[in-house]
Design brief:
This is Response regulatory domain-containing protein. The protein is mainly alpha-helical. The protein contains 27 helices and five strands.
């Protein structure tokens, strides 16, 4: 296999510290890493914080054959997964295969590292047009689909996943790849059906319920989201899923249940410092969200609890991202008390503007804090950064919650009109370029933020008609036309609505075919 420079680390924290100074071409990881986070959690965290390059090979080696463990590892889409029983011969064979694949696609991987996905796609297309060795075919297809997905070419990516599934419908990474394409393309009814099929798969069950809950949450079907999350054992809830469930409780005025859930997760993880601290911070943020919604005269208890928890999570903390998050939470708490001097003092700390690895949730807190002391331009910059980073988040529950919190922040700051116009303008540019799927996303977000602006909804309908999407996310064409019809429309928009309805009725067999609203009967498949 050749000579390699090898580094060894006893835990994820040591690896993260090393990644600040150098990059690794391959990372071999076990699932169980002592009392800290497990290997999957570390890979997810390092990817989100951009410590791992797109080209870095991830190899998992574990003796744990539990379905939940195997499912979590597969979810990270490792380049190689070795599970007991194995020996030196099988391990060597697997590593040689990966190195052979890596050499074959090296130029494409280098392009991804240089943020040039278009060039990576050209290289992969060229490799595909040549004779790809049969033993590398699946690996190259996986990379090809990943690049297409990254570029927003969802239909092409979906076709590649379907090609893999046509040979074997049990390939889990291809199943999830197809579901992600359906989700981002707005085909939520198809997405729901395929997730329902995975509920009996022991390797994918919990994640399927988590995704179904996300679909319900985005449609404000809070009780249905709670219903799906109730199918996951509390001890097995991931941090994002726990956060989703606690916010689902809060949306239903079940604040006590939300606090109890987060406290239980802290208790479960007292022996795992990193995870205990994570849930401690989540509980602190939950108390801050309670305080934010209370009258200023009633905030003392919630703010006191939040500060106490932040203090507990900060003990012996050396991770720079976590220290920064802690300080932004303390600054936000001070802003809720109108203590602007304290806010300014904390924000002036040197590390508060080192934002290259800051996660979307912390950026949103930072934006709200700056806005509270009148730094509205800085707040806008931070929100824009949070939106951009959120598209890179791999976990749907985190992405869903971040989107919700971002939208609420923009509404609270009085930026909704400005933001919705930006979203609509982006949608128009994409629509003119015939990039309909991405255009629909921006029209949808603009209309959700400003439903009183009929033009945004009309743009969404027109895009659905042009791209032949009978439904997009929670809307069908007839339902959206009916919703717009009962709204306040000027003469120009009324005329446009009539034209769009006529266009849809000309293909009634497609656009007016009987549709089941995506959020109806949500509980039937899991009952």
């Amino acid at each position: 296999m050749g000579e390699f420079e090898i580094s060894s680390f006893s835990n994820g924290s040591e690896l993260k510290a090393a990644l600040r100074r150098q990059n690794f071409e391959i990372i071999l990881m076990d699932f169980h890493l002592g009392q800290g986070r497990n290997g999957v959690e570390w890979v997810q965290q390092l990817r989100q914080s951009q410590f791992i390059r797109p080209s870095t090979g991830i190899i998992f080696i574990t003796a744990d054959r539990l379905p939940q463990t195997v499912g979590q590892i597969i979810d990270t889409q490792p380049d190689l997964f070795v599970i007991k029983p194995y020996n030196i011969a099988t391990l060597t064979r697997g590593l040689k295969h990966y190195l052979s694949y890596r050499s074959f696609v090296k130029q494409a991987l280098d392009a991804l590292d240089n943020n040039d996905a278009e060039n990576a796609l050209r290289i992969i297309n060229q490799l595909d047009s040549e004779q790809t060795p049969g033993r590398l075919k699946n690996d190259v297809v996986k990379l090809h689909a990943r690049i297409l997905f990254q570029l927003g070419k969802l239909l092409e990516a979906k076709k590649l996943y379907e090609t893999v599934l046509a040979h074997s419908d049990k390939v889990l990474w291809a199943q999830w790849g197809k579901i992600k394409c359906e989700y981002l393309a707005g085909n939520w009814s198809h997405c729901r059906n395929e997730l329902s099929d995975l509920m009996t798969n022991s390797l994918a069950r919990d994640k399927a319920f988590e995704w179904l809950a996300c679909l319900c949450f985005e449609q404000e079907a809070w009780s249905q989201a709670e219903f799906y999350l109730d199918h996951i054992k509390i001890s097995e809830l991931s941090v994002p899923a726990t956060r989703l469930k606690s916010l689902t409780y809060q949306k239903q005025d079940k604040v006590i249940e939300g606090i109890e859930l987060l406290q239980k997760k802290r208790d479960y993880n007292r022996s795992t410092r990193e995870r205990f601290n994570e849930f401690t911070v989540e509980l602190a943020e939950f108390y801050l969200s309670i305080a934010e919604q209370q009258p200023k005269t009633n905030r003392d208890e919630s703010l006191s609890q939040a500060r106490r928890l932040i203090g507990i999570a900060s003990r012996a903390q050396v991770d720079q991202q976590q220290i920064q998050k802690k300080d932004y939470l303390l600054a936000f708490a001070a802003s809720l008390e109108d203590d602007h001097d304290k806010v300014t003092q904390i924000l002036s700390l040197e590390h508060m503007d080192l934002l290259s690895r800051t996660d979307p949730a912390t950026l949103t807190i930072a934006a709200k804090t700056h806005n509270a002391i009148g730094n509205s331009e800085k707040a806008r910059e931070l929100l824009a950064m949070a939106h951009e980073r959120n598209h890179l988040v791999g976990n749907l529950a985190s992405q869903t919650l971040n989107e919700q919190v971002l939208t609420n922040a923009e509404l609270d700051m009085g930026m909704a009109e400005e933001r919705s116009l930006e979203l609509n303008n982006t949608g128009m540019r994409l629509f003119i370029g015939r990039d309909y799927i991405r255009a629909m996303y921006y029209f949808y977000q603009a209309y959700q933020m400003q439903p009183s602006t009929a033009a945004f909804g009309l743009n969404l309908v027109q895009c659905m008609l042009e791209s032949r999407h009978a439904n997009y996310r929670s809307y069908t064409v007839p339902a959206l036309l009916s919703k717009l019809d009962v709204g306040a429309l000027n003469n120009s928009n009324r005329k446009r609505l009539h034209q769009l309805r006529t266009q849809a009725q000309a293909e009634a067999s497609f656009f007016y075919a009987e549709q089941t609203p995506d959020n109806e009967n949500a509980q039937d498949s899991a009952s």
